[in-house]
Each structure stands twice: as C-alpha cells, then as structure tokens.
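Below is a filled-in request sheet from our internal design queue. Each sheet records the structural input a requester submitted and the sequence that came back. We keep these sheets so that new team members can see what a complete request looks like end to end.

REQUESTER: design group, bay 2
PRIORITY: normal
MODE: inverse folding
CHAIN LENGTH: 370
BACKBONE (tokenized):
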C-alpha cells in the first residue's frame, strides 16, 4: 500500500461515489465534489421543466416495465427449464422495477408512472390538469420503449417461439403465446368479459388503495425509505394472486407494450376476444374508486395539516376557527401531530414556503421525512 493511501486511511475520508450517499449516517469527512459551473447552472435553468417531467415519467415507467416483461420473456421462452424463472420471479421483477422507478425518477416528476394515478392526483391533490395529457403520453411512451427493447433483445428466441406456435396452428396472439410476453390476454375459455372486468377492477382498486395509503403523509406506519418497496410489493402480490386469470394493473404498462405486440404480431393484439379495452381502461375507474374510498372514508386531513403537507383553504383564520369548533385547546390532551396543528393555527403557517415539489410520491416522502 502506498504512502498516499496510508495517509488517506488516517484522514477517515470517504471516496466520492456511492459512499457519499451514506455520509449522514457516519461521522466522517467526504471528499469535496467537483464545483458546479455557471455553465451547468445556466443549462439546467434553460431546460424546460415539462421536458424534465416527461423524461422522468417515461424513464420511470421504462424501469418498471422493462424488468417485468424481460422476466416474463425468460419464463415463457424457457418453460421446460425451471432455472429460467417462474411466476414468483416475474412478480418480484415488477416489484423491484417499480421500487427502482420511484427511487430514480420520483424526485423529478412526482413519481406517478400510471395514468390512473396522474388522474387521481389531479382529482384529489391539486395536480394541474394541463399536465395530465403529457404525463400520460410520457408514461405510455416509456412502456412502448421497454417493450421495443425487450423484443429486440429476445428477437431470435421470440421468432423461434412464434414459428413453433404457428406451426402448431395456435397463431401468435393468445394467453401463453409470443404476444403475451408483452401484454395480457385472457385464456381460451375466459370469454365472460364481465368476469374479467370484475377481476381487473378489484385488483386495481386494491393496488390503488394501498398505494394511496403509502402516500398519505399522515400515515405513521410507512417511512419514505420503505414506501417504494411497499408499493412494489403490492403489485407483486396481485401478480402472484391473479396472473393466471389475466390482469393488467396499469393503462400505460399495457397500452405501450400492446402497441409493440400489434406491430410485430398484428392487430389481433387489440381485437383478441374483445378484451383489450378491459386491460387498458379499467385501471382508471378502479383507481379513482379506491382513492375516493380513501379520501372520503379514511383520510384525516387535520393530521395531514399537522405534518405540514397541506394548509387550510382559508389560511390561519380558517384553521383557528376549525380548532375552536372542534373544541381543541392547549389544555386538551393532544398527539404530537395535533400539537403541531395547534401551533400552526396559533402562530401562523409556513406550509406554503420552500421549493415546490410536484404532487406525487416525492411530496409525500418529503413530508414524511420531516
């Protein structure tokens, strides 16, 4: 070991890189990062915010869909070899993909990654409706690119699989066929669309409710660091429970990859058993139902104000009036959150200060971390 390295060991410094992320957990010095140039700041300032948000949403959906359908491809193309995967592996691939999508991209766009969630944020949380169309376009585009890349990477194996299914007289578009690597199709005996609608609606409602609870800043049982994994896990649970019946769970995830399936396997990807509208559209009303259930029957907005995630529409006077009408006073036994609410109502709120964060996962994580 050189003298320079020995000298560095005695300084207790950490090298720049992954170790920088853990500096707050250890009392050590970190090597200074390269200074930010004015040129870089000018470039980032000139970069449109809408472009950053679209790129983040597209990238996040890509990170979610890409490992999921890649695991599906590995499993379906090697059914005779258990070493290449199972439904259990596919569920985890989607779960980890969702977690990594949130970790990498949510701080920029809010981390919607699902058109239904974007619509719910606009409905319940004040997300600008003017942003909804380009968020949804970016999400579908990210899914499309994931499907396109997986097809390119598995092209030889998929082509051989398609040739085999055609030779067997099965075609390419059916549950378990080449096209089902990319999007969902019902089984040959699953012709009851009402039944398939019910399955999809309940599965998506379950996911939407758990996701909305994870993003509730007043929820004391979910920490920001755990939320991505909890959200990913609920998707995996539904894959494990209902994939054999056929589920989609996400408009963007299904539509983007279904377009890829239609490009390479024909328009039957949309017309097969008249099912595609269920996979594409049911996710939206189901998630709206789940979030409405949470907002109308479960949400505690006063606790949300206490966490600093919201403010009264009439400001300090409105909050004070509500506290008086609710018989909340300094003498009343209060939880720490309620004490914070009383303090905000009495001394003035600063909830609307600080840098703006987009409605979504990042805002909830920021609030929960305070």
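RETURNED SEQUENCE:
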């Amino acid at each position: 070991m050189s003298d320079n390295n020995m000298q560095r060991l005695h300084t207790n410094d950490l090298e720049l890189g992954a170790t920088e992320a853990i500096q707050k957990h250890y009392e050590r010095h970190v090597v200074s990062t390269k200074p930010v140039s004015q040129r870089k700041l000018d470039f980032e300032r000139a970069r449109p915010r809408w472009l950053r948000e679209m790129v983040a949403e597209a990238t996040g959906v890509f990170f979610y869909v890409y490992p999921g359908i890649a695991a599906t491809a590995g499993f379906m193309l090697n059914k005779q070899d258990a070493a290449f995967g199972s439904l259990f592996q596919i569920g985890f691939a989607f779960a980890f993909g969702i977690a990594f999508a949130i970790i990498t991209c949510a701080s920029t766009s809010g981390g919607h990654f699902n058109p239904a969630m974007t619509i719910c944020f606009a409905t319940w949380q004040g997300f600008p409706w003017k942003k909804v169309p380009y968020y949804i376009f970016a999400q579908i585009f990210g899914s499309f690119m994931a499907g396109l890349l997986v097809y390119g990477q598995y092209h030889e194996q998929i082509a051989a699989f398609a040739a085999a299914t055609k030779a067997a007289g099965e075609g390419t578009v059916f549950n378990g066929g080449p096209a089902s690597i990319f999007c969902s199709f019902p089984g040959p005996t699953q012709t009851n669309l009402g039944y398939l609608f019910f399955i999809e609606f309940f599965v998506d409602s379950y996911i939407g409710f758990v996701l909305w609870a994870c993003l509730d800043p007043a929820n004391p049982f979910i920490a920001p660091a755990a939320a991505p994994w909890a959200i990913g896990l609920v998707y995996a649970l539904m894959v494990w429970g209902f994939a054999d019946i056929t589920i989609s769970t996400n408009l963007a995830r299904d539509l983007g990859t279904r377009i890829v399936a239609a490009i390479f396997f024909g328009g039957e990807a949309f017309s097969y058993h008249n099912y595609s509208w269920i996979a594409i559209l049911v996710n939206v009303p189901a998630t709206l139902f789940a979030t409405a259930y949470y907002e109308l029957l479960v949400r505690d907005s006063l606790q949300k104000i206490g966490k600093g995630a919201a403010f009264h529409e009439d400001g300090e006077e409105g909050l004070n009036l509500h506290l008086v009408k609710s018989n909340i006073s300094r003498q009343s036994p209060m939880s720490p959150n309620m004490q914070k609410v009383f303090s905000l109502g009495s001394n003035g709120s600063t909830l609307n200060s600080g840098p703006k964060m987009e409605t979504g996962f990042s805002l909830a994580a920021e609030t929960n971390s305070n």
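SHEET NOTES:
- The mean pLDDT is 84.
- The two ends are 44 Å apart (CA to CA).
FILED BY: M.R.
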